[in-house]
Amino acid sequence: MLLRQIFLVHILLISPANTFQTPNSSHPDPDSIAMEVLRHIDLSRRRSLSEGKTQQQCLTGNPMDDCWLCSGTDWRSDRQRLADCGIGFGRDALGGKGGQIYLVTDSSDSDPVNPVPGTLRHAVIQEEPLWIVFSADMTIRLAEELLVNSFKTLDGRGAEVHIAGGACITLQYVSNVIIHNLHIHDCVPAGNANVRSSPTHVGFRTRSDGDGISIFGGRKIWVDHCALSNCADGLIDAIMGSTAITISNNYFSRHNEVMLLGHSDDYSPDAGMQVTIAFNRFGEKLVQRMPRCRLGYFHIVNNDFTEWAMYAIGGSGNPTVNSQGNRYIAPPDPNAKEVTKRVDTNEGDWKGWNWRTEGDVMVNGAFFIPSGEGMATMFSKASSISPKSVALIDQLTLNAGVRGGRRDNGEQSSVNGGTMGGGNMATDGGGGAKKGYLGMMFAGGSPSTPSGFVLLLYVLIGLFFSLLFMHQL
């Protein structure tokens, strides 16, 4: 994330309703939270194998999805159950639980100072807990950053909602926010303008970076089942002492610097940053930062890394990286096979950092360089329950991205179960096992159309067998 030259102005001008000194929300034993995540996965998997046939059709082994999809009630009449389904460091994010349902009926954003009732901006600035849903499919082009107040859930289930083509989402000095089932893409910088952040406060905003989701001094945040791509800066950036964050079941694609977690190597409050990254699909045309970490503790578990151009996981400032049960599919480039990158740091300095790989599968020459106590017993608690086999990655990430429609650009998933619809399959990359021509499986994406040479080969083969058949007659 680009440094804001006058970010102190932001601190002085934020809404009084949102102003608080971020308490130390870091868990004193992060390994125990990593172990708890693995326990949830294990229990969900066991449940999916032991339930009756009808229930098995719903269960996927993904503990978050199984919690709200397979509870025995229709999620449409029990939306707020979702708030009970988080795991990892962001597990306590309440969102708008207990609050009223706010129905967004107007996709406009014509006046960021005096937002119209029924718009998304009007919903998110309110001070009370709200569960925000959408009346229909819509694309919201924000004129300025969407400043979300504490105790809000943005729930896109039941509609196809795009926040795209303008400014995007900012969580600044707020807590208890859930962002679920939204398309967030093509975000651009905004600012140098007045923006309302609560019913009683309007403040001047300096120039933003153009992140998809910017978390600035936030805590208890859960980003789940979103599709994020092609923004001016990061897709998700968390800085300035943010912590207690879970990023799960998302589909990332078509972007350079995907995720920055940490403001700078010498910003000591980020030492308390704790982030869980689980069940995500890192898809086509990604370059780097999946994530790029500083100082804190990062549990990266059961994700599918299908493409990168430079590296997948980077870091500086001695972060702790606990990588468990992920699939890393290296690109064809022989110089980009390494999963890990210690950024601007000599080996003599980083060899003591705690970076561990456990149960990860490396495909196409991928390799992960562990270091420090990660090579010995640092994660003994987290390792007391093994991460699920990478053989289950396809199932755990089956519905990564937006459910109930296009999961990203071209693929579909079902909101009522674990199967995927047809959709228009993306043809410009992407991972996962896909059937290509003649039924062959491609680990890194299926070709869009056969080349001229292949077509000629098919014709010659067909002609050969035709002549052979006529000869036998």
UniProtKB/TrEMBL annotation:
Belongs to the polysaccharide lyase 1 family. It is an enzyme of class 4 (lyase). Gene3D superfamilies: Single-stranded right-handed beta-helix, Pectin lyase-like. The keyword Disulfide bond does not apply. Keywords: Calcium, Lyase, Membrane, Metal-binding, Signal, Transmembrane, Transmembrane helix. Residues 403-426 are annotated as: Disordered. The lineage of its organism: Eukaryota, Viridiplantae, Streptophyta, Embryophyta, Tracheophyta. The chain crosses the membrane at residues 452-470. One of its GO terms (molecular function) is pectate lyase activity. This is Pectate lyase. Binds 1 Ca(2+) ion. Required for its activity.
